[in-house]
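Researcher: Can you fold this with 2-keto-D-gluconic acid in place?
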Amino acid sequence: MKVLVARAVFPEVLERLRRHVEVEANQDDRVYSAEELRERLSDKDGAITTGSERIDGALLDACPRLRVVANMAVGYNNFDVPAASARGVLLTNTPEVLTETTADFGFALMMATARRIAESEHYLRAGRWQKWSYDMFIGSDVHGATLGILGMGRIGGAIARRGAHGFGMRVIYHNRSRLPAAQEAALRATWVDKATLLREADHLVLVLPYSAGSHHAIGAAELALMKPTATLTNIARGGIVDDAALAAALRERRIAAAGLDVFEGEPAVHPDLLTVPNVVLTPHIASATVATRRAMADLAADNLLAALTGGTPPTPINAEGLQPRG
Ligand code: 8YV
């Protein structure tokens, strides 16, 4: 059986895969074009992908042997799930293993944004620090403030817990479905409608999956509802925020600051975001710790090998509704 590991991965994970299947690897870590990906997958039974590889019906039609695609990510907006289900191709992702690490980073980015850590560090490095002043890089408190969470899945819950239990924050959230009362009580989080969330949050964190329905969930109209002192942190996906509208709101100080780990069209970054000072920019690293990236790679390998050797993949996306492979 042949598999493609579409991007570079820990060598130990490749060694493990090679004990069971024939592996084509990409340790140079080139991002394949759609054509090259299709070509390389055309004789494969399985693949490990990342958010950079788009798997859709046109690609699957050119890969008749493909039975499983294991994403090394919890988000899977790079997959056309109905197209894969209709063609009998199992898709898997890596939930749970990155929850706490990603929540740590979301909290760190929110704090860096509220306390202007990146902006003040650039100032110091540029040799501009001459004296202490009462209002130099004055920011806003995190402890005791209102934390707003848009999207209350596993990562949202882990951020809520940090805010409520660690920092004495009032936590409000908006999600299509409200959590059961016992879970809300445990997180000390209160459901509010989206407009209330935008109006009342001192620090708004986005943790919802990307879909056509969440495209530009935060645009000019939503930003206009936020407090001028508020911060916005996006660790979810590019495209959920209208980056041009956000850059304008930051430039005009209609909100205080933003922290962004994800961007529309990344790795390209909207040029206006690069010229406003009150934004902390990081290159999609929220899950990037050694232990978590290793756990993600291991889980992707578990899913791939189970699917190809008659086992039960631990974290399938489309096990239900999967048509027989024709
Ligand atoms: C990944 C992520 O690093 O899991 C996700 O959804 O966004 C990140 O943890 C990235 O998607 C690469 O696959």
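Model: Folded with 2-keto-D-gluconic acid in place. The CA atoms of residues 4 and 40 lie 7 Å apart.
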